[in-house]
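PROTEIN–LIGAND DATA SHEET

This sheet pairs a single protein chain with one bound small molecule, coenzyme A, given as SMILES. Inputs appear in the order they were entered. The predicted three-dimensional arrangement of chain and ligand is reported afterwards as a token string under its own label.
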Amino acid sequence: MDLKKTYPIAQHFSLERKELSDEGWFTCLGINGFDSNESQWTQWLHPEEATYYQSLSAQNRKQSFLLGRVCAKNAYLNANPQESPPNVHIQTGIFKDPILQNQSTTQWQVGITHSKSIAAALVFPATHPMALDIEEWDTKRATTMRTQCHTEELHCLEKIGLGSAASGAVGWTAKEAISKALRTGMTCPFKLFGLKSIEAHPDGGITGLFINFCQYQFRSWIIEDKVLSIVLPKRTRLIFSKNGPKLTNTASKAHGLPSVHDASHSHSPVSGS
Ligand SMILES: CC(C)(COP(=O)(O)OP(=O)(O)OC[C@H]1O[C@@H](n2cnc3c(N)ncnc32)[C@H](O)[C@@H]1OP(=O)(O)O)[C@@H](O)C(=O)NCCC(=O)NCCS
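PREDICTION REPORTED AS:
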């Protein structure tokens, strides 16, 4: 399978604020579409990435590393179509954060996430720090994710129509995403990433702020069995072109809010984006 041919779709978004407008791209790739003989990796990986990739022994880590890089490069090539994937180097920083080395006049940065069934990436200008996280919101995982949310946060999420599992996943992914934007990862106590002002967003999905990191907001979307959360500067409006974000090339759509039931009961949304 040719990953290049199968997954070329990067979703464009605008970043609008009073003093500055920017843009970026979001790309995702289902793990089911991954070719187990991995014949494509030389087409995608920079020599230094390839050395790391070949050193990995765990198959699922090889898969997540490759798919994350493919997503990020796919998104980056929209900003720089003259580049070829193996020339684009996404280094691993000392805190394990992805560092995009690029020659472009715009300083592009990258964020990467993988879940059980999907990898995704954001490419955004350095003027607008951003990060993302995706998780499946099955009942079992949600139980763990809920343990990292304050009762008040869960209550707010449930009040705007989310079921118990989706609430836990939104709370968790928003916190993991801010931890990536700050580059600390989840080495900080989760309490530091507390959420406030949670509400349905007029453009679709859910939005909220952070108690301690007042420069940032999060946006979250329930998309079938997954939650996508993106963290970005508070006063910037994130506008996906073409009714995004979408997590597959075909049917999947981002919904405003999920059913009030748990993931175990129903996935049907109560409103579209
Ligand atoms: C960052 C963290 C939350 C990601 O968790 P995860 O379960 O791997 O979640 P995801 O799949 O959504 O994200 C993985 C991606 O996050 C990115 N990432 C890793 N560490 C990061 C950090 N400190 N800041 C920003 N992004 C980071 C990477 O791109 C990684 O993908 P890659 O390794 O294929 O490049 C988690 O790894 C963490 O808390 N790390 C703590 C920091 C740490 O231990 N660093 C290592 C020692 S310094």
